[in-house]
Amino acid sequence: MIEDMQIRNLSVETQKTYVLLVSGFARHFNKSPENLGPEQIRAYQLYLTNERKLRPSSINSVMAALRFLYKVTLKKTWAVEEVIPTPKRPQRLPIILSPEEVVRFLAAVSITKHRVILTTCYAAGLRISEAVALKAPAIDSQRMVVRVEQGKGQKDRYVMLSPKLLATLRDWWRLERPRHWLFPGNTPDRHITASAVTKACKETVSISKMSKPITPHSLRHAFSVHLLEQGTDIRTIQLLLGHRSLATTARYLRIATTKVCSTTSPLDLLPRPVPIHTPPTTP
After folding, report:
1. Does residue 180 have an active-site annotation?
2. 36: which residues sit within 8 A by CB, 6+ positions away?
3. For this structure, is 127 an active site residue?
4. How far is it, in rounded angstroms, from Cα 235 to Cα 245?
């Protein structure tokens, strides 16, 4: 299975995840997956749903790993998509920070490195995994762009380099003098981990006592919605975010207040206000 994933150039993280999920399936029945079939797959999905209480997104990951195993590696002839269905994922909208809340949150981050990384996530709309893996040459001050190398889906892309972000990164450079990684970790040959920044983010929310839940990805959501509210077209935002499908980006249309909430309600178009108390009808 690992060789099949290597041939198809799946990312190292995907390979590790798929192997871990398939091994969990095998351990549950204490048998090789080659000796298991549709009945066991169905039973395992019910186990994950009813007993483990996993979210649909987590179950989908398990099912994707099993589909790869049985369809690609074991080459089963049964209809894999029918035998291994995926649960319907609920459509939830992310909670969006206002510009004032972004300023307040970033100001509350105590460690400079973490603050610069989270500022970069907001200024360029980067995923946290992309921000921590930036290298100094990726910051192109001549063209005012940031080169994101091998983002999600192993795709390169360019995003805008804000003048304010450039000034922040230059201050960081003078302070830290990083060599290879722009944000080095505890050892110089590795960058800081995404989990370390996520943990710092959680601690900041607790200290600042902000009412909204905030993760590094919240800043990417805020980047998208704030651009949309400023009038940036959806196709440009799609390219900046690195979304494969325009439909993924279009969900932000449901959140942008200037596009949705500024629409006049038909109640306001009525010729006179609606009374709270209805006058009694004359006999």
Report:
1. no
2. 25, 26, 29
3. yes
4. 10
